[in-house]
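Hi V.,

You were right to ask for the full record rather than a summary. Here it is.
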Amino acid sequence: MKRVAVYTSGGDAPGMNACIRAVVRGAIYHGVEIYGIRYGYAGMIKGDMKQLSSHSVSNIIQKGGTILKSARSEEFMTKEGRKKAYESLKEHGIEGLICIGGDGSFTGAKIFYEEFGIPIVGAPGTIDNDIYGTDFTIGFDTAVNTAISAIDKIRDTADSHDRIFFVEVMGRDSGYIAIRSGICGGAEIVLVPETNTTMEEVIETLKKGKNRSKTSSLVVVAEGDEIGGAIEIAEMARKHLQDADIRVATLGHIQRGGAPSAKDRILASRMGLSAIEGLLNGRKNVMAGVMKDELVYTPFEHAITIEKTLSPDLLRMVDIFNS
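Predicted structure:
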């Protein structure tokens, strides 16, 4: 290959810029022209791309977000839209792609490859850590640390006022952020989509804490928990704990932003270099990941369809520490 392109798609994640940097400098090292596509699939359709140099990615490894921007594209979900994207790539002489994103982005990449044969290698960039084929995704570690920092502050005010706080963290389909930030923040209860905790169990645990003269409690809720979000769960709790001072804190998009942690910078750099070198070595329709500290390639099909389960050890720890 003589000319390839990189793009970021879906929700932004801390470390995406570090991954872009690794892709660009890896391509240049191997004598390949590298282009950046702005605004993901939407930019691909419009031809919003330009050649990148080593200088283009200077001083970005420490920055959150993505210098290539990201956007959703309903047009790319159609065969006509994907055909426009293909024609745009051909017009610019692009022979292969690096996709940095999550399961939705990889689904689009898989379909695009199957329809038009453009070789694509992915790098998993999502704070949810819900992609099979890698132990951790780019941005997850930073998001957990951001959540822990907020939870520590909330714990201070909960303790000062004898309150019960329900703290909602991101995780529509995955409880990875919730379980790790909950354990590190000393939460009494962690509610995640992967388990079927009932409201009765939540109330019983909070009452047990009160009987042990516990004056404050903290419940971490993944936004996709089957009972509901933190606001709904807190409302149900008030009906059973009428004497309790119950408050809600929704962390929201602060978990997406901020400078990436050292772990995310290293991970993103390894994955970015692995992605570009894999592409140049003939790999296609796969994702570059890291499992047990080893670089691996996983077919997009497996990355987006095989369920990545929470560690039973982490779930057990929450139960033991608050029994």
